[in-house]
Design brief:
4 helices
Length: 84
């Protein structure tokens, strides 16, 4: 038999109740679902889902990655804005 280890986590009663119900509806208990999450994380070498930033953070990252346009002077900037 495989040696087992205990993992303890803290979460809200509501989250535990809702997650337990969800997994029960899927035919799983909470422990099995958590083990599936851990196994999939190891297979993928990371989280088994896309971790997302807030909309503002994502837009800031995209903005910072965009090339910088140097207008030179006000008239050039007006031309750039007019042609966007």
């Amino acid at each position: 038999m495989k040696e087992t280890a205990r993992i303890q986590i803290r979460t809200s009663e509501d989250m535990k109740r809702r997650a337990s119900q969800l997994f029960e509806d899927l035919g799983l208990d909470l422990g099995t679902a958590i083990n599936m999450f851990l196994s999939q994380s190891l297979r993928e070498g990371g989280l088994p889902f896309r971790s997302r930033l807030s909309e503002f953070d994502r837009e800031m990252e995209e903005s910072e990655a965009s090339p910088v346009t140097h207008a030179g002077d006000v008239e050039n900037m007006k031309d750039i804005i007019h042609h966007v």
